[in-house]
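Still learning. Any example?
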Amino acid sequence: MISDLGRVLGKYGFIVYSAPYSLREIDCIVEKDDFFVLVQICKTCDMKDLEQVLIGAKKYKETENIEPNALVIFSYTGEIHHEVLDEAKKKGIIVENNIRKLAKRLLALTKERKNTQ
């Protein structure tokens, strides 16, 4: 799945790579022009996946000294528990199951960031 994300997001200028072992709570990192996104990939996304991406974000900030610009929970089957959608929305976490839609959302966020700098 990481290679699929990399192939599609790469067309939009993003670099996708596996998270280091020290950040095993997340699956991959998406990067573009100092814009960092942490991604948790799941088959059936549940609250455990949401907790993992939050823990991963905290560890990433501690170990890399970088505040992630966005957190993503990506379901490759489209199966996402409703409570995950509700809680993710409250916490500002992107939940997606379509790579192209994810790319458009991340592009919009990078443009917003550039406009506010």
Summary: The CA atoms of residues 56 and 62 lie 10 Å apart. The radius of gyration is 13 Å.
